């Protein structure tokens, strides 16, 4: 009936105007729609990709960056398999907000979540305010992976989502293997595996 | 020809050929050319006859061609003659048409001039008699005339000519009338003279001042909306708190505002359409919405102030930021019940707003569609409308409200659930404890309320929180109770209840009876919860039906995804099982489902409460001799020495549990008991000896047992007895070789569960079978 083997939820967060919606559109529809209005609440797109011969369905939840939608956004953290935290490399302000976002993630998300820090708007690198090194060290200090992207030029966008899909798929496969004949290894009660069905 | 082109040997260069090699080469080339030309000549000669016959046929057709040529010339001249004629005729028609057009134009101009005269006269008298409609009608007629053309065609169009004068008069009259209408309209606005407002409103489009008229008119409508809303707000402030509607007075006030705007649109849209033309509603709405925003914002402000919305919201936020704040005293903790009424009003505010915005959208879209415009203009206008609805102050204020509402609703839900857990109690005769019903009631209530807000995002958020609570705290609570295990020893229900009657569940493990009862209750709770999750999902899906039908595409997908996540909680119970080594070690196969958690609990029960008690009862089988005479056999038949007693014991054992378990948990327990009985009985039988009559008696005993167990459960248990039944069949044989009638090819529908070795072993239990015969069997 449903044409996929695994389903993963990816949630994009970050300040308003850093380009979350554009990243999602670029990835799911291959478009860069300029003059996009602010997202209201949460938007939702689906893209099915193939990872090592298996169809993997990515549910991408594109959240509103504005403060008044925060409580809606937060309700999605818990069930997310991956979080993409986005800032704008031409905006110091969006970068300075990152610690606040990280704190929120720690409060609401499940512990085994994969999180990626993304510096978007690489096409505007001449107006850059945040260096690659700054981004990298911020990601390292919060144990996140790091990537700079351009939704406009489609730079690194597919890579961002595909890397996530691969990692999540591998995680589930490893668990499936473990659940085979050997059962000792799963001692950690905290690491609930709940992404595949 | 071919020879000429291919022969490219340059004769001029002949002199230059001094080397022998070059001469040789040139010679070869010439030879090649020669043979080629010879070939071509041969070829032509071969075709000579053919060519000659073609030539002669050509000669023959020459006279025919001459005839054709003269015919064609004749035809050509005829065609050109006809064409000239036609050109001639149509030219005249064109001239005629042109003349007709000019005559018409002339008549038109004459009419225009007449009209101009009429208008000039009319507008002055009309103005004098203050008949503004009539004057505006004349001006409208004048505006539809093409002034330049009029001036060109009339001979006295010089300065001071009569037409020029008339035009000047009209021009002045227009300015004059515009001034008057503006003044009168403003006066009418100030005195709220409805009739005058509507009168002058109709005049503006006649003067070509559509936008101005609409703007002035909307000002009038805005002031009306504002007045009424202020009135309502004042009333709301003084409303008796005991009034039936007091709890939702702000939602009511907002509703009245929306209804007013709706009414204004409803009443005046036809007016605007008649006098200003279709497609102008968006403009009107844009102006009206500004007022609606202002008033709605006031209502929201009042709501926030009088309901202490922000105070409560901050309290909740502060509580959440302390990370659940277990240390905080009940004093500073907000009682969830204080939020209940306000939360309901909050969702009502949102649902009214959604309804209003939908109304506006439908109205404007219909109006836009009624105008014949190209797709791009319409697309732009639609985008303008969406932007207005999305970004108007009303939307923003309500979104803020809902944002805070979600946080508070989550708090309300969590706190209520915690309370239900802490007040958990078990009533006599009930299988589950109060917490299960209570918690699911709370979850349903809160999520239903969120859905009633009419906001998809709000509904999804609470669906997510419900899922999170079920997967997290609630599940953990149930598991932690199961992990404690079932205390061993016999189970005295009466004592357990007497404990419970004194209060809640005992926490000290010293009281094993109560702990046992709690264990079974937990099992039941889990089983019922699995069921409740599905029914919660079903009933919430029903609640969402209206939302689903209003929202297409993304909204629908979001809701469905969140609902599915809720439904999948039952699977996630499984995932917790996955990581709990506790379970993994105990359950053999890896295909867990929700029920298997119950199975695990039951197997715990079995180990500590059932196995030890079954053992002596089954052992009794050994004390009954199965190597018997006819007399003994009849005696057994009359007065059974084993199985009746055994069944009675089982009955007592099961009865202990039956009343405390849900039907399906009880069935699962019977199934476990049956497994235990068959395993132990099998071992015991293998330690006895039988003769033919003993075997027959064993067969009877087995049948009674199967009949009894079948009668107490919905599940089939015959299958569990397959091995024992086959053992009975073997013990019932006349002679050893008879087994071959049932074995191998002769087994028919029977599937043997016993291995050949086991068959031999059972055969050897018969004292009257010779071991050589058994050994000789080929199985």
TrEMBL record, chain A:
Protein name as it appears in the record: Ras-related protein Rab-30
Role played: The small GTPases Rab are key regulators of intracellular membrane trafficking, from the formation of transport vesicles to their fusion with membranes. Rabs cycle between an inactive GDP-bound form and an active GTP-bound form that is able to recruit to membranes different sets of downstream effectors directly responsible for vesicle formation, movement, tethering and fusion. RAB30 is required for maintaining the structural integrity of the Golgi apparatus, possibly by mediating interactions with cytoplasmic scaffolding proteins.
Keyword Membrane among record annotations: yes
Enzyme Commission numbers on file: 3.6.5.2
InterPro entries documented for this protein: P-loop_NTPase, Rab, Small_GTP-bd, Small_GTPase
Location(s) in or outside the cell: Cytoplasmic vesicle, Autophagosome membrane; Golgi apparatus, cis-Golgi network; Golgi apparatus, trans-Golgi network membrane; Lysosome
Catalysed reactions, as listed in the record: GTP + H2O = GDP + phosphate + H(+)
A cellular component term, taken from the record's GO annotations: autophagosome membrane
GO molecular function, one term: GTP binding
Family, per entry: Belongs to the small GTPase superfamily. Rab family.
Swiss-Prot/TrEMBL keywords: Cytoplasm, Cytoplasmic vesicle, Golgi apparatus, GTP-binding, Hydrolase, Lipoprotein, Lysosome, Magnesium, Membrane, Metal-binding, Methylation, Nucleotide-binding, Prenylation
Cofactor: Mg(2+)
Membrane-topology annotation of the record: Lipid-anchor
TrEMBL record, chain B:
Coiled coil feature spans: none
Keyword Protein transport part of the UniProt annotation: yes
Pfam families (UniProt xref): COG4_C (PF20662), COG4_m (PF08318), COG4_N (PF20663)
One Gene Ontology term from the biological process aspect of the record: retrograde vesicle-mediated transport, Golgi to endoplasmic reticulum
Membrane topology note: Peripheral membrane protein
Location of the COG4 transport protein middle alpha-helical bundle domain: 170-483
The keyword Transport is assigned to this record: yes
Compartment list: Golgi apparatus membrane
InterPro entries documented for this protein: COG4, COG4_C, COG4_M, COG4_N
Chief place of localization: Golgi
GO cellular component, one term: Golgi transport complex
Keyword set, alphabetical order: Golgi apparatus, Membrane, Protein transport, Transport
Homology family: Belongs to the COG4 family.
Entry protein name: Conserved oligomeric Golgi complex subunit 4
Organism of provenance: Holothuria leucospilota
């Amino acid at each position: 009936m449903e044409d996929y083997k695994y389903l993963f939820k990816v949630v994009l967060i970050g300040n308003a105007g850093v380009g979350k919606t554009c990243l999602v559109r670029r990835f799911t529809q291959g478009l860069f729609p300029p003059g996009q209005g602010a997202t209201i609440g949460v938007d939702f797109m689906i893209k099915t990709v193939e990872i090592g011969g298996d169809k993997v369905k990515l549910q991408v939840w594109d959240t509103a960056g504005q403060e008044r939608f925060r409580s809606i956004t937060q309700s999605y953290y818990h069930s997310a398999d991956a979080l993409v935290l986005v800032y704008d490399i031409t905006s110091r302000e969006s970068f300075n907000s990152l610690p606040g976002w990280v704190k929120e993630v720690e409060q609401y998300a499940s512990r085994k979540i994969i999180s990626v820090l993304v510096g978007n708007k690489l096409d505007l690198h001449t107006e850059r305010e945040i260096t690659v090194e700054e981004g990298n060290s911020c990601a390292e200090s919060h144990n996140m992976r790091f990537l700079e992207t351009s939704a406009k030029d489609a730079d690194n966008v597919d890579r961002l989502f595909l890397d996530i899909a691969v990692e999540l798929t591998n995680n589930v496969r490893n668990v499936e293997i473990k659940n085979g004949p050997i059962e000792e290894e799963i001692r950690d009660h905290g690491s609930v595996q709940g992404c595949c069905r | 020809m071919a020879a000429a082109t291919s022969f490219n040997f340059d004769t001029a260069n002949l002199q230059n050929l001094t080397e022998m090699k070059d001469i040789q080469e040139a010679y070869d080339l010439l030879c090649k050319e020669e043979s080629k030309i010879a070939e071509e000549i041969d070829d032509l000669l071969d075709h000579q006859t053919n060519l000659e016959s073609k030539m002669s046929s050509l000669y023959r057709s020459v006279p025919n061609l001459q005839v054709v040529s003269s015919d064609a010339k004749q035809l050509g001249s005829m065609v050109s003659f006809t064409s000239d004629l036609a050109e001639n005729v149509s030219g005249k028609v064109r001239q005629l048409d042109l003349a007709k057009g000019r005559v018409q134009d002339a008549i038109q101009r004459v009419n225009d001039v007449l009209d101009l005269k009429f208008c000039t006269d009319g507008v002055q008298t009309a103005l004098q008699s203050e008949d503004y409609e009539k004057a505006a009608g004349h001006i409208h007629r004048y505006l539809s005339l093409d002034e330049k053309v009029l001036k060109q065609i009339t001979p006295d169009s010089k300065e001071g000519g009569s037409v020029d004068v008339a035009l000047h008069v009209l021009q002045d009259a227009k300015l004059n009338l515009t001034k008057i209408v503006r003044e009168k309209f403003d006066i009418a606005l100030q005195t709220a003279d409805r009739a005058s407002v509507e009168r002058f409103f109709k005049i503006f489009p006649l003067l070509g001042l559509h936008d101005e008229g609409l703007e002035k008119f909307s000002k009038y409508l805005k002031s009306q909306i504002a007045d009424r809303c202020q009135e309502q707000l004042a009333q709301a402030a003084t409303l008796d708190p005991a009034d039936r509607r007091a709890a939702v007075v702000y939602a009511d006030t907002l509703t009245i505002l929306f209804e007013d705007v709706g009414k204004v649109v409803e009443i005046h849209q036809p007016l605007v359409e008649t006098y200003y033309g279709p497609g102008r509603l968006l403009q009107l709405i844009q102006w009206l919405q500004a007022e609606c925003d202002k008033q709605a914002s006031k209502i929201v402000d009042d709501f926030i102030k009088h309901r202490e919305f922000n105070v409560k919201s901050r309290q909740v936020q502060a509580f959440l930021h302390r990370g659940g704040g277990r240390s905080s005293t009940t004093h500073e903790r907000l009682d969830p019940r204080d939020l209940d009424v306000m939360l309901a009003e909050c969702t009502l505010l949102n649902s009214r707003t959604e309804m209003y915005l939908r109304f506006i959208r439908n109205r404007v879209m219909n109006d836009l569609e009624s105008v014949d415009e190209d797709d791009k203009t319409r697309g732009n206008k639609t985008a303008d409308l969406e932007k207005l609805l999305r970004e108007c102050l009303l939307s923003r204020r309500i979104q803020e409200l809902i944002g805070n509402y979600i946080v508070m609703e989550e708090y309300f839900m969590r706190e209520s659930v915690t309370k239900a857990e802490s007040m958990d109690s078990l009533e006599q005769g009930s299988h589950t404890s109060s917490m299960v019903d209570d918690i699911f009631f709370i979850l349903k209530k809160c999520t239903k309320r969120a859905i009633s807000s009419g906001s998809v995002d709000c509904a999804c958020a609470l669906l997510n929180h419900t899922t999170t609570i079920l997967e997290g705290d609630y599940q953990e609570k149930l598991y932690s109770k199961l992990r404690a295990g079932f205390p061993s020893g016999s189970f005295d229900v009466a004592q357990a209840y007497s404990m419970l009657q004194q209060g809640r569940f005992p926490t000290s493990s010293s009281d094993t009876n109560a702990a046992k009862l709690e264990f079974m209750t937990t099992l039941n709770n889990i089983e019922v919860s699995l069921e409740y999750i599905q029914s919660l999902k079903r009933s919430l899906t029903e609640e969402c039906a209206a939302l689903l039908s209003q929202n297409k595409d993304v909204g629908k997908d979001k809701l469905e995804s969140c609902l599915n996540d809720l439904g999948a909680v039952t699977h996630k119970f499984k995932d917790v099982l996955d990581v709990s080594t506790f379970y993994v070690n105990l359950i053999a196969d890896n295909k867990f489902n929700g029920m298997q958690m119950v199975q695990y609990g039951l197997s715990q029960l079995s180990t500590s409460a059932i196995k030890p008690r079954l053992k002596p009862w089954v052992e009794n089988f050994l004390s009954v001799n199965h190597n018997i005479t006819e007399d003994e056999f009849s005696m057994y038949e009359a007065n059974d020495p084993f199985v009746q007693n055994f069944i009675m014991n089982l009955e007592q054992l099961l009865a202990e549990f039956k009343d405390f378990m849900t039907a399906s948990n009880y069935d699962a327990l019977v199934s476990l008991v049956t497994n235990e009985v068959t395993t132990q009985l099998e071992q015991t039988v293998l330690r006895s000896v039988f003769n033919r009559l003993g075997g027959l008696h064993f067969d009877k005993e087995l049948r009674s047992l199967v009949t009894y167990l079948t009668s107490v459960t919905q599940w089939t248990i015959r299958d569990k007895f397959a091995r024992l039944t086959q053992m009975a069949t073997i013990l019932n044989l006349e002679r050893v070789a008879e087994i071959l009638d049932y074995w191998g090819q002769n087994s028919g529908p029977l599937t043997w569960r016993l291995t050949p070795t086991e068959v031999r072993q059972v055969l050897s239990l018969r004292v009257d079978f010779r071991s050589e015969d058994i050994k000789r069997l080929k199985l």
